[in-house]
Specification:
Distance between the termini: 46 Å
Mean pLDDT: 86
Oligomer: single chain
Number of strands: 0
Low-confidence stretches: none
Shape: globular
Helix content: 55-70%
């Protein structure tokens, strides 16, 4: 099975990004003693939820194993984490098997579905905020 044109660049880029993110987390946690994160600049300035709103809280919830809470804060974060993990795992196993067998391939459909999920989450949060006065 031939490797797709995007997979050639995406696989190592995701692996390096994952390693750099983990290193940044270790520095933040152990060297800087986990300082408090600043308030969201976008929400503080305009009082509107952005598409990534709740993403930091969702990542923190995921690192503590609270998947339901992560989905509450921003469902795109756990969906993205599972998607990236599945992609990296399947690509790694495919490469270890000598590039034989089934493997997940990159497709723009994954990106558009992720962006749509972020937009729906943003729209729902702002509808609840402006339409019903429910702050999340």
């Amino acid at each position: 099975m031939e490797q797709g044109p995007w997979d050639r660049e995406l696989y190592p880029a995701l692996a390096v990004t994952l390693a750099a993110g983990f290193a940044a987390f270790l520095i933040w946690r152990f060297t800087l003693n986990a300082p408090a994160l600043p308030a969201c600049w976008f929400f503080t300035r305009w009082h509107v939820y952005c598409p990534a709103c709740g993403g930091t809280r969702a990542i923190i919830a995921l690192t503590h194993g609270k998947v339901a809470q992560a989905c509450y804060w921003n469902p795109a974060v756990p969906v993205g984490a599972v998607s990236v993990a599945a992609y990296l795992l399947s690509q790694t196993l495919w490469r270890l098997r000598g590039r034989r067998g089934w493997v997940l391939r990159y497709s723009n459909r994954w990106l558009w579905a992720f962006l749509l999920l972020m937009a729906v989450n943003c729209g729902a949060r702002n509808l609840l905020w402006f339409g019903f006065g429910i702050a999340l």
